[in-house]
Amino acid sequence: MRAIEVFFQVSRGFVAALFLITSPVAIAADVTAVEEEWQLNLNSPNASRSSPQLNCMISTIGVSESYYTILLINQNAFGGGGLELQLWNGLVMLDSSGLGTFASLATADEKIQWTTRMELDSNGLLKVQILNGTSTTWGKFGGKSNLLVSTQTTLANLNTYDPNITANSSGVEFGNQRVNKLILRKVRVYTNNKKSIEQAVDRVVFEN
User: How far is residue 71's CA from residue 175's CA, in Å, rounded to a whole number?
Assistant: First the structure.
């Protein structure tokens, strides 16, 4: 029996969530990591106004803890341009990490792709990182010490992750007329540190 079939049997609720059906059910196997693949298609950005500005959120949806991370695109704590990753618990920001450049989006029809990885180790350390980023404006980004945030938690697993929360909590904050499409393309789930399932979601979060 293939791994995806076994995973479907022990975690039907989570697979339902991957197909964008609400109310995921408890999972038998511990989810230790989740990866989301994203794609952003622009039309005509305005560099002088740092427009558009977007955010993409990933959340643990824990019962006793509410940890989530926001990727700020073409904006940061100091103003416009660049990328910034922020880690929150409720209304408290715990950690942040920037790209290292405040360059603003300026290329017509630019396509930006990246992966957001959220992982939890056996000691409760939650880490979120941007990987495999590609763009015209910022070149290749992620996978290093920048765009990496972490905090110690009491979480036992990431079983309550739901891609619906990601899709419903992400979008364009400013300059939506300058965005063609923002897409959550794929979700990968790791149980006990091994990839268990990869689902092509192709959820359109925003589209003009």
Answer: 17
Q: Which residues contact 106 (CB under 8 A, 6 or more apart)?
A: 45, 47, 137
Q: What is the pLDDT of residues 138-189, one digit of tens each?
A: 999 999 889 999 999 999 999 999 999 999 999 999 999 999 999 999 999 9
Q: What are the φ/ψ torsions at residue 186 (nearest 5 degrees)?
A: -140, 155
3 in Cβ contact with 196 (< 8 Å): yes
Does a cis peptide bond (omega within 30 degrees of 0) precede residue 45?
A: no
Tokens for 119, please give them. Answer: 């992982």
- The predicted model scores a pTM of 0.86
Taking the CA atoms of 192, 194, 200 and 205 in sequence, report the sign of the dihedral they define: positive
